[in-house]
Amino acid sequence: MEILLEELYKTDLQIDKFHDRKIFLEDMSYQINGITKSGKSSLVKNYLLSLKKSSYLYIDCSDVRIDLHELNTHLGDFCKKNKIDTLVLDNYIERINFPNVSQFMILCEEHYPINDLKTLRLYPLDYEEFLAFEYKYDSSALNHFFQLGGLPSMQKVNADVRNIYVQKILEAALDVMEFDVLCFCAKMMAQKLSAFTIYERLKGNRKISKDKLYRVFDALLAKNYIHQLQKFHHPNATKKLYLCDIALKSALTIEKHFGRLFENMVFLELLKSDVACYYEDGIDFYLPQSEEIILCMPFADERSLFKKIEHIEAFIFSYQVKKITAITMNREGGISHPFSRVEMLPFDIWAIGD
Fold it and tell me: Is 281 a domain residue?
């Protein structure tokens, strides 16, 4: 094991051109969580390359040459002997013991309740981060975002193999049942969906217990491959389900529904903004803290927006909604309303605004 540690210690880290993310690393210890290919390794390697080469050790725990018992036996002494200040355990495995170093980082999909580590959640690229990968920002950028989604590695995957690429990385990251459930969730994106409904639909095609299905569903939630949205003031109502990245829709199902894809894309922007958000009948997203309703209407005009508002008028007055924003593909404008400020904003303007 000492020979392998020496090899890893001497190996020069390599990353392609790094594009800044909205998460920055400082001189402290972290647990960085995120789905596969969300950019965790690149983020940390870019930080390590700013340090003195002899001061850090980067270990990918998925390396089949690593024996966990041997690693636990030798890692502490190796770090002490080589005066390692920063230790990174990528694809962290819970059974690995922590040596005594100044800065410690673990990278993993699932969150572990570990004291003294600041938790960072790295999501796939939002639209503003995505623009950093574009050679130029013009009207084609949004369409490109629809095609690629938010996985940074997709930037270098040829168009004819993108769906297969997504399938393979998901199959490698998830077990068979998790992958099957995720495929079903892709069909039901941006719709009300419960674990029980999934069980009822899948039990006819494969042998699975309800308890097993619920554990798999909870695991996908914990790893943030799927997200749920609660109905306002109805915590027991069926939640709406969204995917971690819009690229999963076309990669895992042949079913097309642009409106739901667009809604999922808007949800992911709201998710990263870390604001309290709910759905309501006829309302895609309600943000009570800012007294705002967000409607996903990619091809709306003033007439269709007016009709939409008519149907949710009771909610608007009941909860004193001050602002209504209809997110569109490219239309901008507004309509008059006696109580709320109503405007239509193209997604690209809304997503990169304050």
Answer: yes
